[in-house]
Structure formats: structure tokens, C-alpha cells
Known about the structure:
Blueprint: H1 3-12, H2 30-40, H3 48-61, E1 65-69, H4 72-82, E2 90-94, H5 99-107, E3 111-115, H6 126-136, E4 137-140, E5 143-146, E6 153-157, H7 168-177, E7 181-185, E8 193-194, E9 197-198, E10 205-209, E11 222-226, H8 229-239, H9 263-273, H10 276-297, E12 300-301, E13 308-309, E14 315-318, H11 322-334, E15 340-341, H12 361-367, E16 370-373
Parallel strand pairs: 2-3, 2-6, 6-7, 7-10
Antiparallel strand pairs: 1-11, 4-5, 8-9, 8-13, 10-11, 12-14, 14-16, 15-16
Helix pairs in contact: 2-9, 3-9, 4-5
Amino acid sequence: MFESTIDFIKSTFKTNEFLPLQEPRFIGNEKKYLNECIDSTFVSSVGKFVDKFEKEIAAYTGLKYAIATVNGTSALHISLLLADVQQDDEVITQALTFIATCNAISYCNAKPIFIDVDKDTMGLSPKILKEFLQENTRLEDGKCINKTTGKTIKACVPMHTFGHACRIDEIKDICDEYKIVLVEDAAESLGTTYKGKHTGAFGKLGAISFNGNKIVTSGGGGCIITDDEALAKKAKHMTTTAKIPHKWEFEHDMIAYNYRMPNLNAALLVAQLENLDKYLANKRELATIYKKFFDEQKITFMIEPKESKSNYWLHAVILKDREQRNAFLEATNEKGMMTRPIWVLMNKLEMFKGAQCSNLDNSLWLEDRVVNIPSTVRL
Ligand SMILES: *Cc1c(COP(=O)(O)O)cnc(C)c1O
């Protein structure tokens, strides 16, 4: 089964070897900058590559500030703390996301509420969000109070799944109306714009990941993006042990974090960013090739939703049902072609079993059917 699909994908990548889902490519100045970094001895958390990277990512996403962090999860964690998410607060996110989103919420000792996604974006559904808030909350002293738990819903974290933008402008309007801080999990969507604006730029804060499997990588790394100067300063402070600047004294004014991105990682990332446009074009071209092929196979290929110019980070197909999904996973992985199902819904995990949820019909439907297929930039 699926032999023609496996043959086609292997021929597209011109290989008979094991085919991974998403491999990094180091085809530019990676080694040069890493050597420069080592020669400078500034391999750790201070150095010109960190500064350069922060400037470049801010310019690229069209925001005023970017703060480099050790990974995407820590970028989310700090963003939520800056949104004033505290113990016993609640944070809305989608049931269909990667665990990191919910881990960051949990690090703040807050509880997630899971809302359904739209089928065409696989991201948070503004329609279902609005219905949920109308039915389940009331505004009190400028706060959104959950009528069921009596707790405050402080923030909302939509995620741009596989680099496809969700309806983030509608979500922003709803959050504004309900006095909920919008924090975007843009971990997967560097290079993705929605109505011409970069994802992560709609919320008060956005978090991006540069993990090894993302579209560009620093080995491990992340960043916070924002237009708010005060939040940007606080983000830098909180990710760097809250040290008060002084020539020699070690004074710190709060319990904070060592979430700095080392200069060594930033050096790799600066080189990677030089090729981002090339990667984006390459992945988009692969999407066109896949679309044509899967149309002929009568298998749905996930294309960019309306208004989203997607980075096509991970390509995905939507199979007929869970049985066909399992057969596809079995056949492809058996033949050395890596494919992976979309995540198990967050509300099904042991840690989040008690969480409040909206109707999750779309999430359940997608969970049964979506599989990622090889997506690496072809050389
Ligand atoms: C990759 C990812 C993150 C952050 O991951 P790190 O590995 O900590 O950089 C967060 N959310 C989503 C949806 C992701 O895919």
C-alpha cells in the first residue's frame, strides 16, 4: 500500500536512503561564523552574534524588539509571565498543539483551557473561542472571569500549526474585547505572514523556536518578539538572572532565569538566517509538487489557508480516517520514509485530563487523520 506515494517522495528527494521528516541544512556561513565565535572566545551568553541575531529577527518580523532565549519553551514561559500569568490564573490555548505550549503555561502554575481549532488552519478557531467566552465568562473590573471556576483568564496562546497562520486578527479582536492578553506561539512559523504581517506580531508578545527541527536552527534556541519597549527590557532582565547593571557588584532584584542563548548558538543562527528566503522558496516549491501529486492520488494535501503566506515548515496530508492514517504511517516508516502523526490532543494527556474544554470536534477529526511527510529543504 502507498507504494507509488513512497516511490514518488523518494524520487522527489532523489534518494533511496532513509528519508527524515525535517533535517537542518548547513550550506552557508555556519562554519565560518562558528569559527569566528570560537576565535573570539565569546562562546557563551555575551557576544556580537546574539546582538546581531536579535536585530535581524526584529527587522525580519517587523517588530521593534527581539530577545534571544535558550529555547522556544523558555520564550513562551517568559512571555506568559510578562502577560502577568500567575498561580491559579487560566490560559486559553488550542487542544491541538505541541506539548511545549502547555508546559509553558504550567511553569506559571496556571491552568490551560482547551479550545477547538479550525479545520483549514489547524489553529485556534476564533468562532469557537468567541462562543466559549460568551457562554462561560463575565467581565469584572476589567478582568475576564471564568464563571465555572471563578478564576481569571489572563492570556490566550494560539499556535500557527506547521507554519500555517490561524485567523489571528479575529482572535486578537476577541482577546481585546474580553481583556485577555494575546501571546502567540509562533514557534513553527518563522517566515509566515498573515494579511502581510508576520506571525507573532499580532500579540502583545510572540515566541519563536530555533530547535533543530525548525525551519532555521541554532541547535537549540528561541526568541521573544514584541513592540513594547518596557516588556522587551523586562524580558531581557528576566532571561538574564535579573542582574542590575554594575561594573562589579552582583545585585539581582528578583528571582529570574538563566534563559540566555549562547553566542555559539547565535553564530549558527545568523548564518542560517542568511538562507531563510532560499529555504522558504524551496519548501513552497515542494508544496506545489506535493499538491499536484496528492490530488492525483485523491489524498488531501494541506495547503496554506486564505490570507496566510505559509512557511510550509512541515508538509502534511489528511488521510481518510484513523485506519488509513495508521496504514500510511506503517507503510512509510517501514520503507525508511519518516512520517509522523499530528499530536495527541492535550486534553487527553494525563496532566491535563481535568482541563476545561470547548467542543473539540475539529481537533478530534484532525487528530485521526493528519500525518507529516518529509519536508526538508532539497539541495
Ligand atoms: C518547537 C515548538 C515550541 C518550542 O520548542 P523548543 O524546543 O523549546 O524550542 C513551542 N511550541 C510549538 C508549537 C513548537 O512546535
